[in-house]
Design goal:
The protein is mainly beta. The chain has a single domain, classed as Jelly Rolls (Sandwich), CATH 2.60.120. The strands form 2 sheets. Strands 1, 3, 6, 7 and 9 form a 5-stranded antiparallel β-sheet that branches. Strands 2-8-4-5 form a 4-stranded antiparallel β-sheet, with no helix packed on it. The radius of gyration is 15 Å and the shape is globular.
Length: about 130
Amino acid sequence: MPKFGLENGMQQWRFEYDFAKDGGAVSAINLRGAPIPVGAVIVGGYVDVETAVTSDGSAEVALHVTGAGDILAATGKASFSLAALLIAVPDFATVADAVRVATAAKPVVATITVAALTAGKFHVVLFGWVR
């Protein structure tokens, strides 16, 4: 029987940031979770905030897999409020926003800029296919 494009189904990748475990310095932090495999195409996702992100300054957080802000552009700490849901750049609607993992398995990386974080916990959930 021939194989069809959706036979293997959509996959889900989950990552976590937790200030208590990962710290919050102005830096790039690999989020905890199994890397997204080579050949994956990320077509959608969201950020689910479990504990509000706080900072003594105007901290911003961006998320990426292969290029700056390809999952979430730099976003101010106020958007990461308790129980907030943030939609990822790949939004299931625009093929130009899809992210292809071409050369090596990749984690989601949180880039903290402007000021260090002092608290927060969030989950990143991405959806896509591996060819």
